[in-house]
Specification:
By secondary structure, this protein is of the alpha/beta class. It is built from 14 helices and 9 strands.
């Protein structure tokens, strides 16, 4: 069992850190809002730290699951950042959905200190984190990944190294591109069914086992038909992710017309006050 630090106890990080503790690892948590860390320790045991550098001290692995690139920089770098407390031979694992450029920045800083690095964004949402059923997309040195894999398996349904540093983040971008198009298509299909006077539930039962079936269809159609979006992966976070995707596409020349259009649609959902609604709220935009 390893001594582990987990930085960031949001809707994903909180249960992920819990799975580490449940599997016998010695876990120290850090969260910018200390009350969240206190609640985690009360529930799972382990210990909490008041700074990232304190959390990372003497740890074999340091995991981060934060909001965006700047959040990661603020927690990893500087005199009170995690990197300052990490020892040579330890490994930094970034589960944040962030840019590939940040992954290279973190890898460079880690290499200078003799620390390993894996970029390891996740997919599966809050339910996946709570049930330990996340898909983890990884980039980094093969030997470093092999060591990190044994710890990340605590909350993984699937895990794959896609290549060197940044490959995990680039793969997560592919994931978000695919989701954006799927959710828009599902929204249009369900809205069409309603307008046509069909029973939405019966339609999904008829088509979900065929070529149109998807995770989004199975797990989101009921709440979409019920006009319920107070759950799931927030529109604000999806727009952040799509922004990363579109920036990367400008660099590599990929054409993403559907993704760019769906990004505009999510902007309209935000204008409707749906910043914290689930990404499936694209359907609500069609019903205005």
């Amino acid at each position: 069992m390893a001594k582990v630090a987990f930085l960031g106890l949001g809707v994903m990080g909180y249960p992920m850190a819990g799975h580490l503790a449940a599997n016998g690892h010695d876990v120290t948590v850090y969260n910018r809002t200390a009350s969240k860390a206190e609640a985690w320790v009360a529930q799972h045991g382990g210990s909490m730290a008041h700074t990232p550098v304190e959390a990372a001290k003497d740890c074999e692995f340091v995991m981060a699951c934060l909001g965006n690139d700047d959040d990661v920089r603020s927690v990893v770098f500087g005199d009170t950042g995690a990197m300052a407390g990490m020892s040579s031979g330890s490994i930094l694992i970034d589960h944040t959905t962030a840019s590939a450029a940040l992954a290279h920045e973190l890898h460079s800083a880690a290499e200078d200190k003799g620390v390993g690095f894996v970029d390891a964004p996740v997919s599966g949402g809050q339910a996946g984190a709570e049930n330990g059923q996340l898909a983890i997309m990884c980039g980094g040195d093969e030997a470093i990944f092999a060591r990190a894999e044994a710890v990340m398996t605590c909350y993984a349904k699937s895990m794959k190294r896609l290549g060197g540093t940044g490959a995990g983040q680039l793969t997560k971008m592919v994931n978000q591109i695919c989701i954006a198009g799927l959710v828009q298509g599902l929204s249009e299909g369900l809205n069409f069914a309603v307008k046509a006077g069909l029973d939405g539930e019966a339609v999904i039962e008829a088509i979900s086992g065929g070529a149109a079936g998807s995770w989004q269809m199975v797990n989101r159609h009921k709440t979409m038909l019920a006009d319920d979006y107070e759950h799931g992966f927030a529109v604000d976070w999806m727009r952040k992710d799509i922004g990363i995707v579109l920036d990367e596409a400008k660099r590599n020349g990929a054409r993403l017309p559907v993704t760019a259009l769906v990004d505009q649609f999510y902007g309209e959902v935000q204008d409707m006050g749906g910043n914290r609604w689930d990404t499936s709220s694209l359907m609500k935009r069609l019903q205005r």
